Fold this protein.
Amino acid sequence: MPDVTFIPFSKIDLLMEDEIEKSGFWPSSQNEIFDIERFLEKHLKSGLDKDANLPDDVMGEVAFRRGKKTCVSINAGLTREMENAQAAWQIGRWRMTVAHECAHVILHGPLYLAQGAQDGFWEEPPSQIHRCYKKQDKRFVADDFAAEMRDFEARYGWNSGCLINEPQARQRMEFQANRGGAALLMPANRTLCAASELFNDLRQNAPQLSQEARIERVVEQLAKKFLVSREAARIRCDDLEATKHADQLSLF
Ligand SMILES: [Zn+2]
């Protein structure tokens, strides 16, 4: 049975950047908004059902089947919310849901396909479904996502794999997909460069602002620039230690 292994955060960032580069859909510096739907359909060659009839507590799911197209389904309720969105953050939240599923396709697709091959050795392999629940979606609630993941990894072992059908494997896959989704919409280097520029601007043009207020503004601007929710932008900045990075750059 395939193992879900520990992947360091920075490695997940690099894997995602690599996929963006391979896709040829790297956004231009004038427009940082990554076309995640196109990436899913054209580069990852997955189907996308945006109006999936899924239970309320399900955000989306991915169906893997050897020899068949992978299909990502997004809860129709979330898509309706996005289509009727009054605010950009709602669109951002939906984009992050799609990006999260993309990360599953990249990081976990090969494991599910290997699992399917074992299950269906003598006959047509069955579809392997990976379902993502809203309650596990830490993007909206947890400021301490990274800490939670560290605790988890410390408990289950940094170097140990867990079998794909074990509960801790599911949780590990969810953590990895959250990080991977964020890395697709806000690639590390581009995010750090953009954050540093914004911090510098504010230091020069609004020196009266407190550091707290500066961070607030930078997060808001980044959310707009990359079309993600503010929560997602804040978590990404924390994970990448954007403030520390900007401070270091300003010393030179
Ligand atoms: Zn998931």
